[in-house]
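Quick one: co-fold with zinc ion.
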Amino acid sequence: MSNADIYHEMIIDYSRNPINYGKIEDHDVTFHDSNPLCGDSIDIDMKIDGDKVSDIKFHGKGCAICMACSSVLTEIAKGKNIKDVRNISKTDVLGELGLENLQAVRIKCALLSLKVLKSALYSYLGKHLEDSSDVDKLKEEAASLY
Ligand SMILES: [Zn+2]
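Sure, here it is.
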């Protein structure tokens, strides 16, 4: 099997059996966003302990690429401290699934969950941090993803 085939299989597999799929009822922060072009619609719930994302789950519906990237992203973020989660880049997510050269029209499918995650952190930190300039930077990061 070529690399492209392996990645394709991974995407199909994640879309059928997404990981970290579900809700966290006692979440500390939740955020929703959608990609109307494709119909992807994702919520991310996070539990934050001190400066660590102790649990993260997503729910909603999306195409195979959206579900696969949400699975991979939540797996990367789970257990990490907020600083590291903030630094998760689009290449981190796309690289896991060999999607670096994804067509522009599908990039929103792949990065919707990262946008939701950054927006959720923004919303959380906005309520918990004194220094709002730092938080505004995060908002810009989320807005400039695609
Ligand atoms: Zn999609």
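If it helps, The beta strands are 29-35, 40-49, 52-61.
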